[in-house]
Amino acid sequence: MRLVGSCTAHRQPAIGAPHPTFNGKVTPTNAALDASSVPTWFGSLGAGDVELVTEAITTLSVPVVNQFGNALGGEYNGHMVDEDGKPINVVINNGKYPDDVGVFVLPTAAQSQGPVLQGSLAEQNWL
């Protein structure tokens, strides 16, 4: 699978410019996502459930700046990052944070098992 294209995202004021971009090949993999995974699943899940998806992503290193537009130093290392008030389960390190970008392909209705229990045979077979 070759994914080539562009996407437009709202640039938060704390994101440094120029921000990283990507235009290349990614290899799709199966994943089980929940609110604590990276990348994060923002949908509704029951306790202990995961959503099974195929993801084709790459990780960009996104610079973060202060209110004056200056790069952050090490004083913010370890601080959690959120997007639109939702945690994405990554932290700032040396003024940057890793951000997974790409696409998620949900199984078709015929293939979907819906959310499954984490650690279940269905999850193990998917991975």
Strand content: 25-35%
What coarse outline follows from CA principal-axis ratios?
A: elongated
Distance between the termini: 18 Å
Provide the structure class.
mainly beta
Secondary structure: helix percent: under 10%
What is the residue-averaged pLDDT?
79
- In N-to-C order, the SSE pattern is EEEEEEH
E-strand count: 6
What's the total helix number? Answer: 1
Radius of gyration: 17 Å
Describe how the helices and strands are arranged:
Layout: E1 29-33, E2 49-63, E3 80-83, E4 86-91, E5 96-105, E6 116-117, H1 121-126
Protein described:
The protein has 127 residues and is mainly beta. Strands 1, 2, 5 and 6 form a 4-stranded antiparallel beta sheet that branches. It is elongated, with a radius of gyration of 17 Å. It starts with 28 loop residues before the first strand and ends with a helix.
